[in-house]
Every structure is written in structure tokens, then in C-alpha cells.
Amino acid sequence: MASASLQFFAFILALFGVFGDIAATLLPHWKVNADVGSNIITAITQMQGLWMDCTWYSTGMFSCTLKYSILSLPVYIQAARTTMVLSCILSAFGICITTVGMKCTKLGGDTDSKNHACFAGGLCFILAGIFGLVPTCWYTREIISNFLDQTIPESSKHEPGGAVYTGFISAGFLLIAGVIFCSSCFKRQQGAWIYPPKQHHLPSTEQESNAGYNLKDYV
């Protein structure tokens, strides 16, 4: 019962991780730059994401521009696009596989098949967490290095946006969920190897007496 509740808790964490992963991939809040200038009324907030750049004016206007050209983008943005999409795909596969392998569901067949499905789903979550953690760390490093560079003007410097933090948290949820699924299946299999099922054998004298008794019945 405890293992089933732990798997359900890991599944909830994985769901939050999947939704956060998708939101971080699509949102344009990876880099944020607030240019107030001399007048707060004409303040402009510039946001840059993996797929589009958006500008929000204090007057209420909001406009976005899609990034159509892939080759013109920096390397870290191209890598972030690829790894975040892979993270979303792997986490979605993990949700489907662990749904079959969880103990609280009636899918997946016998116990061994469900354990293998849970282990495979846990591996998908761990890989998705790694794929989601690498681009967020790399993207944050580029933002900090540009912010500390004295040769870059202040108007071109940015700060990490909400999508970066969402990616960090989602990657952590996926990693924790994957470790829980893999460890729960591994502990169950290890316990079966260390403590094999007991086999009851009759003593040899008792077996001989029973055999002799049976032979006498047929004489």
C-alpha cells in the first residue's frame, strides 16, 4: 500500500513536471529586459523566448514576432529548442508508460510486467528531467555572462525570465518522479532476490514412509 501511494505521489509530480515543461517551452519569458527610460509612462518590457520575441508597452499594447530563421539563432537557443522538445516528448511517454505500470491501475498484466513498465517510465522521466535541466542551465549561464560583460550596453542586457525558473522546477519534478518510480521497482525486485520464496520439503523418512504405505495399499 505504501509503495502504491508513493507511486501515485510520483505520478502527480510527473504531471506537474510535464505541464511545466510544456509551458516553459512555449512561453516567451526566457529573457526579460525592462527599459523604463526617462518616463515611466513609456516603459517597455521586452521578452525573448525560444520561438518568439514579445514586447509589452505600458499603454497596454502587446506584440510578438516569431523566430522563423533557425540558422540565424545562437547555438544555445537552437540546443534549447531541441532538448526542450525532447524533454516534452519523453515526459509524455513516461506518463503513458507509468499509467500502465502503476499498482493502483488494472492495466499492464502481471506484477513483473507492471514493474518493468514502471522502471521504463521512470527512466523516461529521468531523461526528460536531464534534457530539461541542460538548456535552462546553459541559457541562464549565457544571460549572466552577457549581464556581467562590460562591453555590452545596459540596454542590451537581460535577466532570466519566468520560463527559465519554470523549466528548472519542472526538471526537478521529473527527476524526483523518475527516481521514485525506478527505486520502488528496484527495491521490490531486490527483495525477491534476497528473500526467495520458501519451498516446503517433506523429510526423507516421512517420504519413505508415505511411499511404503502407498505400496502396501496396492498389495
From TrEMBL:
Name of this chain's protein: Claudin
Bilayer-crossing regions: 84-105, 117-141, 161-182
Gene that encodes it: Cldn20
Places the protein is found: Cell junction, Tight junction; Cell membrane
GO cellular component terms, semicolon-separated: bicellular tight junction; plasma membrane
Described function: Claudins function as major constituents of the tight junction complexes that regulate the permeability of epithelia.
Species: Eulacestoma nigropectus
Keyword Membrane: yes
Molecular-function GO terms, alphabetical: structural molecule activity
Superkingdom of the organism of origin: Eukaryota
